Amino acid sequence: MSIAMTGQISLEQAKSLVVFLESGQQAEADAVIAEIQNPINSELFAEIGKLTRQLHDSLTNFQLDSRLNDLATADIPDAKERLNYVITRTEEAANKTMDAVEAIFPVVETISEQVATVNPSWTKLMNNELDLKEFKSLCLDIDILLKNTGKETKTIHSLMTDVLMAQDFQDLTGQVIRKVIDLVREVEDSLINMLTAFGISAEKVQEQSLPKVGENLVEGPIVNAENRDDVVEDQDDVDDLLSSLGF
Amino acid sequence: MKVLVVDDFSTMRRIVKNLLRDLGFTNISEADDGSTALPMLQGGDFDFVVTDWNMPGMQGIDLLKAIRADASLSHIPVLLITAEAKKEQIVMAAQAGVNGYIVKPFTAATLKTKLDKIFERLA
User: Fold this and answer.
1) Contacts of A222 in chain B (CB under 8 A)
2) If 0-12 CB within 10 Å is exposed, 13-18 middle and 19+ buried, where does residue A9 land?
């Protein structure tokens, strides 16, 4: 391209175009036009190519961003709700079970007291040591015991059914927790993808992470005690440790 | 004997209360963390404290330290029932003057053994 040319067409090109058109040389005139347009076209194509690539990248990123956005604004709040549901259901189940058990305790206590009342006279009867008056009294006690036991076993049976039914939380909470695990896995994958996109190796990050502990080293239940040597595995370990400290 | 059961989960308090009742302790009060428990202890004549470790507000280990630091409470035996299982934490509790340490999940038999041991030592 000539140094004199600062615009998109030079004076020589314009002059030659006029000459060709005046002399009726249409093909030559068209060639000049093509020559003028050519550099613009190649720059335009390069620019369009660049824009297309950028658009493609933006769309790809947008897909990733919109999923992350969904995760943050919809899926994770939903997961929190799901986990709260698990807390509610397990708490309900624990309370239902304890309601039933606490109702059974006094019933069993009463039966056991009535058995204790009958027992001495019954032993005497078995040893042929019971007189008629004692026998009559024993019969009355046994009558109470039988009637009460008959009635209370029905109560116990119904309460035990309540305990049984309270265990249905396991199925429901299991399904909910499984969904949350899937979500956690997806978030994990997304984050690893992002780290990879930024050129950070996920493995390197993993190596550096340590279990998060709070004040006084609180961590809550240890779920992988067998893989760790800083925790006890059971009560025997606790007792051994304490006795080694002179307890 | 007056017992204070401290745990932030009402279901765990209920379990411990039932087990204690079964072992003959009938005078049982409840608190949901150390900061609720401490004024109750200072205001009442409690003979025994069963506490969780990890609670919002004041943790069980800090409640234990506060009890040992208060001349009017320091004699009260404290049993920790907790999911905290780091050796360092057990040592920490021992140094703070805990009378017994039970890791969750636990059994009724474990609770009975530990209680027997605590009161045998105090007798």
Assistant:
1) 83, 85-86
2) middle
